[in-house]
Every structure is written in C-alpha cells, then in structure tokens.
Amino acid sequence: MTEKSALGVGLLGLGVIGSHVAARLLDPTTANAFGRPVELRRVLVRRLDAPRSVALPDGVLTDDFTDVLEDDGIDIVIEAMGGEHPALDHLTQLLSRGVSVVTANKEVVAKHGPALMAAARSSGARLRYEASVGGGIPIIGPLQDDLLANDISSVRAIINGTTNYILTKMSQEGLAFGDALRQAQELGYAEPDPANDIEGRDAVYKLAILASLAFHTTVTPDEVHCEGITALEADDFQYAHELGYEIKLLAIAQRIDGAVQARVHPALLHRETMLAKVEGPFNAVEVEGDLVGPVVFHGRGAGPAPTASAIIGDLLALARGEDSAPGVQMGQRGPLPVRPMRELETQYYLRISAADQPGVLAQIARAFGDHTISLASVIQKDADDRAGTADLVITTHPAREAAMQAALEDLKGLSVLTAVHNLLRVEAA
Ligand code: HSE
Q: Which of 73, 96, 131, 321 could serve as a FRET partner for 168 with CA atoms 20 to 30 Å apart?
C-alpha cells in the first residue's frame, strides 16, 4: 500500500491561538484524524526572534508572506493573526490564487466575508471560519448545513466571554464594573486593551456573521446596533435580581416582516431562561427554527484549545474535499432591509434618581403617558435623605424604542430628575 501524500499547511500568526494549533499539527497522532501525514511547511510571524512556546522544525518560520503565498506545497493556509490588516490582504491574495483558507478572524469575516467568498468562488478555493464565532462551539457549521431545512426567525446569543465573565462577577459578588474588569484581566480573560469586548464590537462582528448565515443574507457590522456594558453598576444587578432577572450582554438578530433587526446591548433576562444561566467565560447561541424549535449551543467561546478545536475541524473538512462544501455561504444572496432600532418593541427597565417630594411620581408618569408608554412597575429604592433624592426603578409594558427615547428626553428636562443611571431593555423569555 502506498502512503498518502502529506497535507501541506501554512499558518499565519503564532500568538496563543496559532501556537496551540501549530503544536497540535506537529503532534504525530494528528495524522490519524487526517488519514495522511500533515506537514506544517511555513509559519508567518512578525518577529523571527520573539520567544516561542512551540518548537518548530528549522526553516518553517518566516516573516515574509510571499514565502507562504508562493509555496506550491501548501494546500491550505490557517489565518490566526486577528485584526483587519494585513489579514484581509493576505486572505484575498491566497483565495485569489486558489489556496483554501481556514480563519478565526471575526472582524475580517464580518466586514469582508462576501468579497472573500467571491474571490474563493472564482478561483475554486474554499474559506471556512468556524472559529470566528463562539470559539470551540460548533455554530457556523450548523447554520450552514444542519439547520438548513429550517426557516430561522431569531438568533439570541452570549458571544463574548470577557463581558460574560465581568457580568457574572458583578451579578454574583456585587463587584463594581472596574473591579470585575481588573479581575478578568488578571485571569487573562480580558485583554490589556479590552475596548472591543466591553464596548460590544467583538459581539457585533460575531452577530453580523451569525445573522448573515441564519437569514441567508448579508448583515454588515455597521447595521448592528451596539451598546457595551461600561455603564452598568452594582445597583442595576441588585434591582434586576429583586425583579427576577439577570443582566447579560445579548446579541440578538431577528427576522421581522421580511426585514432583519440586529442588536448588541445589555439586557435583563428572566433568571429561569437558559441564556441567563450561562456563566463566566462561557458562550451560548440560541437559534429558533420553524422545524427544530429553539436549539441552544453552549460551550467555551474563547481560549486557545477550544479555538484550535474549531480551526482543526475546518482543516479536516477542507482536507476531506469537495463534498464538504457548505449549503449556505455569506453573501450568497442579496441583503434584506434592515429594521431600524427605533422600531424595536420591547419592555424597558429604567433607573433614575429624582427629588423625594410630593408630585414627583406624577410628573414622571406623565412623561411616559405622553408617549403612550404603559408602566408595569415603579419601585422607590434607596433614598438619600441629605440630598433629598430617591432612586426609582421603573419597568414598562412593551413599548416602541422611539417612544421610549422620546420619553427619556422629556424626563431629562424635568427639574425634579437628578440623574438617569441606566435604561435597559428587558428581553422576553
Ligand atoms: N475576546 C473574545 C471574547 C474572544 O471575550 O469572547 C475571541 O473572540
């Protein structure tokens, strides 16, 4: 029996994810899964002399992308650099040349997925990106193939492990946002510059990819409404708990009347729902299909080992060949109309401080009534006797976002109002 020829692999990036992937590919037992030897031929790095956690064979490291691009022995390239540039340029050149690519890069896929797919289609190359959303959780594959028989109406997800860790700490230990963020950084969950995570952009990229696949359309990151978690305070968690809720950073995409609405923001979720129970750095994605009903994918959404699981899974699929072509691809069909945020209809939670004196509640209630918003509950919380103010926690029945924002503006104009702390949406179970 003749031995099958080796699968030639190139790797772009040797950070924590790239190193984990490289170590796995260099492990001789990995060949068993592929049914043939795997040869890691070239690894692109920024600095050749940087310290490495993985020992590579001589001559594999390079700081020149053309060494990867022009190596005819490379069948598939794995991109684990992250960031838009120069990853986008590298992927475009590889795919245009007919080299198939596996990427973990949510920013590039979310912003340029359809163009990259088009480049791949015209050269006969393939692009897979399971690791771009939810780390080790299989969710791209199920949306592309396993759930294809369904008409999908919504995707609701916790797809950022850093923020879910921070929110879990604030919820369970009463920590302030800054303290919870510091803990997340000390444990390596949050990056030294956590802006992309805590301001919601990381989740926006991931939701744009999920929505594009779920609804067979193209949703771009700038079509996703985005609010981060930096304004949340310990009091919000205390009051949410008293009302029976948890607070989570949710990524939600819905198809409503032939349009798509996509949003990332913190929201109150009833504590008995599955998503409310997703804790720490874990991720979960709930998909609602007309045949399957609600289906939830839960697991480790980040970290080198889970991400390597998704990357090497994609590598295996590409190595198997043509019959692994997915049923749905980003950009395969045209865009659907985007439903603006002001047309959202949901319940709201509002925490404000106001003068603690007769007639104040009536003025506040009128601001809501003027915009036909019906209040569900008004609770007076901590009073500050010296300042003569009280905290008010208000929940509404379902209302339009436009009406709620207009009511908020009116409230801000009231002289009795001393602070607007947080306006949060309450997600129906
Ligand atoms: N920074 C991301 C998170 C992991 O915290 O979930 C990579 O997508």
A: 131
Could you report the per-residue pLDDT of 50-102, keeping only the tens digit for each? 999 999 999 999 999 999 999 999 999 999 999 999 999 999 999 999 999 99
387 Cα–ligand 1 center, Å: 42
Q: Look at ligand 1, atom 7, and give the residue with the nearest C-alpha.
A: 302
Name the pLDDT band for 108 (thresholds 50, 70, 90). very high
Domain ranges of the chain: 7-128, 153-299, 341-427
Q: Is the CB of 202 under 6 A from ligand 1?
A: yes
Architecture of domain 153-299: 2-Layer Sandwich (3.30)
Nearest to 90 by CA among 109, 66, 71: 66
CA 146/CA 161 separation, integer angstroms:
25
Say what the pTM is. Answer: 0.97
Residues forming the active site: 206
Whether 227 lines ligand 1, by a CB cut-off of 6 Å, is no
> Residue 301 CA: which ligand 1 atom is closest?
6
pLDDT at 429: 80
pLDDT of 323: 59
7-128 is a CATH 3.40.50.1820 domain: no
Spatial distance between the Cα atoms of 26 and 275, rounded to a whole number of angstroms: 37
Confidence (pLDDT) at 337: 93
Asked if residue 287 lies in contact with residue 143, where contact means CB atoms within 8 angstroms, the answer is yes
Cα four-point dihedral sign 242, 244, 248, 254: negative
Q: How far is residue 307's CA from residue 428's CA, in Å, rounded to a whole number?
A: 31
- Give per-residue pLDDT as tens, 320-352: 986 567 888 887 777 889 999 999 999 999 999
Say whether 341-427 and 153-299 share the same fold.
Answer: no
The CATH number of the structural domain formed by 341-427 is: 3.30.70.260
Q: Which residues contact 41 (CB under 8 A, 6 or more apart)?
A: 8, 9, 10, 60, 71, 73, 74
* pLDDT per residue as tens digits for the range 62-71: 999 999 999 9
